[in-house]
Write a structure and sequence with these properties.
Number of helices: 45
Shape: elongated
Length: about 1000
């Protein structure tokens, strides 16, 4: 019948209704000669419309009919298709889901008969049934054909819903087992002499070993070999290696029928660098001495599948005790989590959000979480020792190791994601885990999963929902049962036993699990709003605590803060609602002693950790700090009260700076650690120096008001020296200063001097009064005549002293002088006075240079503490702060008169200026800068971790690990940190010897 132009035929409309996307092409195919006998049969269109891709199914059907060798075969196929619904559903279902299997049927048109039988035993074939179907294969090509025929039947049961995703994966693993056995048989038949010399066992690993294989995946294996009878071991292993290699090639190599799948033996000891086949004793020796944590994790799925099964069972039994001891290894949990993070980090940025397997919230997150729990608790509970993810998850839930609701959600998510993965791979029979971007591919994928109303939209929504569930639960999975165990809010539900809870906490790195459980019970028990919110927060917080070097301290400190603030409405709301606050708090509480100590003195400073109105972690500049402190001083009733307020502001701002430093060093889930270590040092040095200057300014104002009203009888200025003047103060630094005054007109020298000395004495007293706030120590030992000279001098006295008595070391010390508080004009004139001393015209003479070198050498020999390791002392050690600073300062003394850029109190700025002026090569400047920054960071880290200043690395292991964590070294890499420090400072010392001593 001819359809008038511009009108659609009724067939066209029916095809659209049945899900065809190209009805015109489909109409032409239906009109083809091949389908003439059945084109009018209504069951055909209904069956095609039920497939994932009706267009693809129809095209595959036409090709299959065309490929039939004779008219009788064609008639048999079409008659069976119309009359037998099981075949129709299976055949068209496969053709609509897999272009690759349609190609196979077109090449082997008789294989459709494999889908006809529908006996009960056909529904769930095992290894033996697959072995029978592969038995006639005698070479790689015939093996591939037989393999595809078996795969065809699995795919048919899968797409028709006869078997679920777990059963599909198990059948694929059974087919792989039968295929490996067939391939090994072919290899043995080709080399009977080799076969007679050895016993060879094939151990399946990974998804094949776990009975959860994909349609297209590497089949991971390990080979174990032993001599047969009295055969020579060396010759037997050579023979076994040849057999194993041939077996791998039979499966992996591409032939006219393609390949089956790659056989991957890289999980063996030493990976691709190790021998392909080892004896059992060699395997055991390796795992006892050299194996890493991930290798024991991989052995969870080890299963003998081919060759000498008795030897394979012996292999598994021999290594099993080592597998279940893996959780006792140091940094066990951290190692497993680090491996997971490394996998994610290696995904190309453009593919992360499409990665079904490896991306965040993907299949690997579920698998890693389950395996982690198995390794921790499988030591004492043998019911958990399954290689299959879903079976293991079910056992974990039954034993109370995972919350039942969490397990149900994870099971559902894992099944959905595995189904997506299966359908993705089935289409082309290619190994892929990337969700496609084209709507046509997404439509076919969605329809294959039963999403028919809006396949693309529904698929995206369901996929995002399930990955969101996995993201939310995969880490909490480890921690939430700990809370259920102590809170006991659901009587009758299985939960962790006390021993299992302690076992899990030890695996997480808690040194005192009993105390940790008491803290958790105090935090999470009860039915109050506070307890409910903390039960929600703690699973995440526990993970962040475990990421630190001292989880016990993190949890204890959290309990202290919560005890202090738990009844304050804004506190729990802050942690619950502001994304960054909870993680920032966890990092700060577990990074060391200083920041928690500062916080405990005024817990309300927790508000700074949020991203709302608390001000955030960005350090405040000197001007607003000074304004706040001076305003508070103006409101105070007396000097002691005023300085107490100033010290409170200092404590709060020290906490802000320390928290910003810790968060920037550790990084967060949303932002990585700051890569520029120098920027962090500059931030801390600038913030602490500004804070110290503002505190001194406020203290000076308070002392003057308390003793003299608004006007002191002498102008008074504080000059910052050393690290203070260089804007490089660390957390534990004293404030090096000089005090200068100048009597007001009409005021006698004696009266002015007495007033100035009283000011200094009172400032020092008030800043060191016992208090909950840390003291600020003022050090004036760099003044003329040192400790023997007066604390305060007039500007005229300084001028007279420097003109007559000044020594080289004093010019050296004055390089860092900068006014920090008091009379600005007096401070400016003091700087004008000393500039000719620190930047002498024409530079230092040779005698002065020799004197500086002599002083430096004397300091190195006399001031380094006895017994100190000079390769690790940050201040006086080889290539440390003193080396770099004296080298830079010598350049300033020699060339500052001619190079304005060198006239700075800051080490890094002066070093950059020297490089820009051509006084030091860029490479050497970079070496010195790197060493100075690293040594400064170590000093700050020691103060943050120990709560007291130190110039060398801590000796206690946890403190040393915490320093390493702050510097960016993961668990177990303390040795690398020390090696890197020594290497960096050794290179710096070489530059120092060249620039400071030789030039």
């Amino acid at each position: 019948m001819t359809v008038p132009p511009g009108r659609r035929s009724s067939t066209f409309t029916r095809l659209l209704r049945h899900g065809f996307t190209d009805p015109s092409a489909a109409e032409r195919l239906l009109e083809s000669v091949e389908l003439a006998p059945i084109r009018s049969d209504p069951v055909l269109l209904d069956a095609l419309g039920a497939t994932a891709d009706p267009d693809l199914a129809l095209h595959g059907l036409v090709r299959l009919v065309e490929a039939q060798p004779a008219p009788t075969a064609r008639r048999e196929l079409l008659d069976t298709l119309v009359s037998a619904k099981p075949l129709r559903d299976r055949l068209l279902g496969v053709l609509g889901a897999s272009a690759a299997l349609a190609d196979h049927l077109a090449r082997h048109p008789g294989d459709w008969h494999a889908l006809v039988t529908y006996e009960p035993h056909d529904l769930h074939p095992g290894v033996q049934e697959f072995e029978r179907q592969l038995a006639e294969a005698t070479d790689p090509v015939s093996l591939r054909v037989a393999y595809r025929r078996c795969l065809l039947s699995i795919a048919a049961r899968d797409v028709c819903g006869t078997i679920d995703v777990a059963q599909t994966a198990a059948e694929l693993a059974d087919l792989a087992t039968a295929t490996l056995r067939a391939a090994l048989a072919i290899a043995r038949a080709a080399a009977p002499d080799d076969a007679a010399l050895c016993r060879l066992a094939v151990i399946a690993m990974g998804k094949c070993g776990g009975h959860e294989l994909n349609y297209v995946s590497d089949v991971d294996v390990i080979f174990v070999g032993e001599p047969a009878g009295d055969a020579d071991e060396r010759k037997a292993l050579q023979a076994a290696t040849r057999l194993a290699s041939h077996m791998m090639r039979i499966c992996s190599e591409t032939t006219v029928e393609g390949s089956i799948w790659p056989v991957d033996a890289n999980l063996r000891p030493e990976g691709r660098n190790g021998p392909l086949v080892r004896t059992l004793s060699s395997h055991l020796a390796y795992y006892q001495r050299w194996a890493k944590t991930w290798e024991f994790q991989a052995l969870l799925k080890a299963r003998p599948v081919a060759g000498d099964l008795e030897l394979g069972e012996e292999y598994v039994a021999t290594l099993a005790p080592l597998v279940w001891q893996a959780a006792e290894r140091e940094n066990f949990v951290a190692d497993v989590q680090k491996m997971r993070r490394r996998v994610v980090a290696n995904i190309p940025v453009g593919e992360v959000e499409r990665e079904l397997k490896l991306g965040p919230g993907g299949l690997r997150d579920v698998e890693f979480a389950v395996q982690l729990l198995q390794l921790v608790h499988g030591r004492s509970d043998t019911s958990l020792r399954s290689g299959t993810t879903l079976d293991a998850l079910k056992a974990l839930a039954a034993g109370g190791y995972v919350g039942r609701a969490d397990a149900v959600q994870l099971d559902e998510a894992y099944r959905f994601l595995r189904s997506m993965e299966h359908r993705l791979q089935l289409y082309r029979l290619r190994r892929t885990h990337l969700v496609p971007e084209e709507d046509a591919d997404l439509r076919r994928l969605g329809r294959s999963l039963g999403l028919r109303t809006d396949p693309v939209g529904e698929l995206r929504r369901e996929w995002k929902r399930h990955t969101g569930v996995v993201r939310r639960l995969h880490e909490k999975l480890f921690y939430r049962p700990l809370l259920d165990a102590v809170a006991q809010l659901a009587p009758g539900e299985a939960r962790l036993s006390p021993d299992a809870a302690r076992e899990r906490l030890v695996a997480l790195g808690y040194a005192d699990p009993a105390s940790a459980l008491r803290h958790l019970e105090a935090l999470a028990s009860g039915v109050t709003r506070k307890a409910a919110i903390q039960r929600t927060l703690l699973p995440v917080l526990l993970g962040w605590f475990a990421d630190s070097a001292n989880p016990d301290a993190g949890l204890l400190n959290f309990r202290k803060v919560s005890d202090a603030l738990g009844k304050t409405p804004w506190y729990l709301r802050l942690l619950r609602d502001e994304g960054a606050a909870a993680e920032n708090l966890a990092r700060v509480l577990s990074a060391g002693r200083l920041a928690p100590d500062l916080l405990m003195r005024a817990p309300e400073a927790v508000a700074l950790l949020g991203d709302g109105d608390g001000g955030g972690l960005e350090p405040r500049g000197r001007a607003p700090l000074e304004q706040e402190i001076l305003a508070a001083v103006g409101r105070a009733e007396n000097a002691e009260q005023a300085v107490a307020v100033a010290r409170g502001v200092r404590r709060r701002e020290l906490f802000r700076t320390a928290a910003a430093d810790i968060v920037g060093s550790y990084g967060s889930e949303d932002a990585p650690a700051r890569p520029d270590q120098g920027a962090l040092i500059d931030m801390v040095g600038g913030a602490v120096s500004d804070l110290t200057a503002a505190t001194l300014a406020g203290t000076l104002r308070a002392v003057v008001r308390g003793g003299w009203g608004d006007t002191l009888p002498t102008r008074f200025a504080v000059i910052g020296m050393g690290r203070f003047g260089g804007h490089e103060l660390g957390y534990g630094s004293d404030a090096d200063v000089l005090f200068v005054h100048e009597p007001l007109e009409g005021v006698g020298e004696r009266e002015a001097a007495e007033a100035a000395n009283k000011v200094v004495a009172e400032m020092r007293r008030l800043l060191q009064l016992p208090s909950t706030d840390p003291p600020l120590l003022i050090d004036a030992d760099l003044r003329p005549e040192g400790k023997s000279g007066p604390l305060v001098r007039t500007l005229t006295s300084y001028e007279a002293y420097y003109r007559r008595w000044s020594l080289v070391w004093e010019s050296h010390a004055l390089l860092r002088a900068e006014p920090v508080a008091g009379d600005e004009d007096l401070g400016r004139r003091f700087i004008e006075l000393i500039d000719p001393l620190r930047y002498p015209a024409e530079g230092l003479g040779e005698d002065a240079v020799r004197e500086i070198r002599r002083l430096k050498a004397r300091m190195e020999s006399e001031r380094l503490p006895r017994g100190a390791d000079k390769t690790l002392h940050t201040k006086l050690g080889r290539g440390g702060l003193s080396d770099v600073e004296w080298t830079v300062q010598l350049l300033q003394l020699r060339h500052g008169w001619a190079e304005p850029g060198l006239r700075t109190t800051r080490t890094r700025s002066a070093l950059a200026a020297a490089c820009a002026a051509g006084l030091i090569p860029a490479e050497e400047a970079e070496i010195l800068d790197e060493a100075w920054v690293l040594a400064s960071r170590v000093r700050n880290a020691v103060m943050l971790v120990r709560g007291r200043a130190g110039d060398t690395f801590p000796s206690e292991s946890r403190e040393l690990a915490a320093v390493g964590r702050y510097l960016g070294y993961g668990p177990g890499h303390v040795g690398d940190m020390l090696d890197d420090y020594r290497r960096t400072t050794r290179r710096a010392r070489t530059v120092v010897e060249d620039l400071f001593y030789a030039s």
